[in-house]
């Protein structure tokens, strides 16, 4: 497939392993986490003692010797072990990228406790030479089971068909539930042109306000679940550490967070899909969300999930042949859309905008959304410029 006309999509399915298969999955998680921590220690010591930087390829070359010295690693598929070093290498590259970008806290790769290691990955599911499935992840028995190397034929719920070519398979443990996540290369399908362009201003009072006057309500899923979370977290705090009752209390808190996360993700998917289906061009502010969550509105900003929404919007737009443009956010709420006058005195209240120069009045959020759209269009480039074109 031509990469310019394809995109990578993920398909997530529920797994129902037997007790024996689940035990093998847990053991794979334990061994891969052990290998990750050992590989990180090896890199640190090599640099500290010899000033030498190890690569993923150099560490992968030692896998044969490792499996001879530690036979327990023979129960893990070789591609899964190789992927551990790829993940560590990616963590190092991300760290150096943040250092180069001048981040105050670059975040050096850390050792992984069992709570932060919940997946393992098979790097190849498709044989390009034969243009067919490899053994890994292949659906069996009319799609009721899939073949997972070193684990067995695991029962799966294929609630929707796979599309495109499966590139990789990741087995994920989410609290107490197992999932198979396929990354597939899918051909892009351009939607019919609508001739419509829209600017989107995001906020906390309203999730989104468009330049054509549409208000999208902020569901505030975290706020709705806070009362339940407080009760569960207090129960967890009273339980004796390392006890079975404490473990169950921790799982209850995790399940509540999972539900909130899923509700928010579902809302983001539906909102992004509506925008992509309706408009050819979508403009939004290029917000630095990671900096904004350091304010006293951190909980509300985290609850609304702008970064996740913008990412989904860009992916959906790319596969549908739409354009998403992120523009400079400075003064969009203070600038008059009618005459261009900029001043903080124009913003009379949270919702009211009145230009002190020309007298133009409007809803403050709609005025900001119109400014965002103007900056994304060719006529608005001279004003502040387009900072980033996603698709």
Profile the largest sheet: 7 strands, antiparallel
Radius of gyration in whole Å, from Cα? Answer: 25 Å
Global shape: globular
Strand order of the largest sheet: 2-8-9-1-7-6-5
What is the strand content? 15-25%
Q: Structurally, how many domains make up the residues?
A: 2
Quaternary status of these chains? single chain
Which spans have pLDDT < 50 for at least 5 consecutive residues?
380-391
The span between the termini is: 19 Å
Query: Count of DSSP E strands?
Result: 17
* H-E string: EHHHHEEEEEEEEEEEHHEHHHEEEHE
User: Helix fraction?
Assistant: 40-55%
Count the DSSP helices. Answer: 10
| Classification by helices and strands | alpha+beta
Question: Can you give the mean pLDDT?
Answer: 91
How would you sum up this structure in a few lines?
With 391 residues, this protein is α+β, with helices and mostly antiparallel strands. The protein has helices at residues 19-50, 56-60, 63-69, 78-100, 221-238, 244-278, 289-292, 298-304, 306-320, 364-376, and strands at residues 6-16, 119-122, 126-127, 132-133, 139-140, 145-148, 152-157, 165-174, 177-187, 197-202, 206-210, 215-217, 281-285, 323-327, 352-354, 361-363, 386-389.
What would you note in describing this structure?
- The protein is of the alpha+beta class.
- Helices cover 41% and strands 22% of the residues.
- The protein contains ten helices and 17 strands.
- The chain has a seven-stranded antiparallel beta sheet with strand order 2-8-9-1-7-6-5. A six-stranded mixed beta sheet has the order 12-11-10-13-14-17. The chain has a two-stranded antiparallel ribbon with strand order 3-4.
- The chain is globular.
């Amino acid at each position: 497939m031509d990469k310019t006309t394809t995109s990578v999509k993920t398909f997530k399915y529920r797994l129902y392993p037997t007790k024996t298969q689940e035990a093998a999955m847990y053991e794979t998680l334990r061994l891969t986490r052990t290998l990750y921590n050992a590989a990180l220690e090896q890199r640190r010591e090599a640099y500290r003692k010899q000033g030498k930087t190890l690569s993923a390829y150099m560490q992968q070359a030692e896998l044969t010797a490792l499996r001879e010295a530690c036979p327990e690693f023979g129960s893990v598929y070789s591609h899964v072990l190789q992927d551990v070093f790829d993940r560590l290498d990616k963590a190092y590259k991300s760290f150096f990228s943040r250092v180069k970008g001048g981040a105050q806290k670059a975040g050096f790769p850390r050792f992984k406790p069992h709570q932060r290691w919940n997946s393992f990955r098979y790097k190849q599911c498709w044989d390009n030479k034969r243009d067919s499935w490899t053994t890994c992840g292949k659906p069996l028995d009319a799609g009721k089971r899939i073949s997972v190397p070193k684990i067995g034929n695991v029962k799966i719920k294929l609630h929707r068909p796979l599309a495109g070519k499966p590139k990789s398979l990741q087995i994920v443990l989410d609290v107490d539930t197992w999932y198979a996540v396929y990354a597939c290369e899918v051909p892009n399908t351009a939607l019919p042109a609508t001739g419509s362009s829209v600017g989107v201003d995001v906020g906390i009072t309203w999730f989104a306000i468009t330049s054509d006057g549409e208000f999208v309500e902020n569901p505030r899923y975290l706020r709705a679940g806070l009362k339940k979370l407080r009760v569960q977290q207090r129960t967890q705090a009273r339980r004796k550490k390392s006890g079975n009752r404490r473990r169950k209390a921790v799982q209850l808190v995790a399940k509540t967070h999972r539900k909130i996360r899923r509700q928010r993700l579902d809302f983001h998917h539906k909102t992004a899909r509506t925008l992509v289906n309706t408009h050819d061009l979508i403009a939004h502010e290029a917000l630095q969300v990671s900096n904004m969550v350091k304010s006293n509105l951190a909980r509300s900003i985290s609850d609304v999930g702008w970064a996740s929404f913008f990412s989904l919007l860009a992916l959906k737009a790319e596969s549908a042949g739409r354009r998403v443009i992120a523009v400079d956010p400075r003064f969009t709420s203070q600038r008059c859309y009618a005459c261009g006058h900029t001043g903080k005195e124009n913003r009379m209240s949270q919702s009211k905008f009145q230009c002190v120069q020309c007298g133009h009045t409007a809803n403050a959020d709609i005025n900001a959304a119109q400014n965002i759209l103007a900056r994304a269009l060719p006529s608005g480039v001279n004003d502040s410029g387009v900072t980033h074109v996603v698709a």
